[in-house]
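User: Show me a protein chain along with its predicted structure.
Assistant: Here is one chain, sequence first, then structure tokens.
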Amino acid sequence: MLGMDQNIFDTGTRKKKVAHIRNGRIYVPQGAPCNTCNPDLPYASLTSVNTTGGDLKYHARGIRNTVGFDWHPTRDELWFTDNGKNDTNYSNV
């Protein structure tokens, strides 16, 4: 059984949060399979399912690579990072 905020994937060089259990749902980011494309769902999204595996919901779409996500401590809003495309001359803000 996964606990809250448990990292369940380790690439060997860094840990990446790929699941977070909250309010009976498992939240999972789905990275984009490419650097600058517009892939079909479920890629490039942040999804959740209930703990029995049903009721798929999309919480964010069009995000390339979400490495971290959590909830605002007082407003119960889902916040996440998005690592944008590689090899650009600007930073994500």
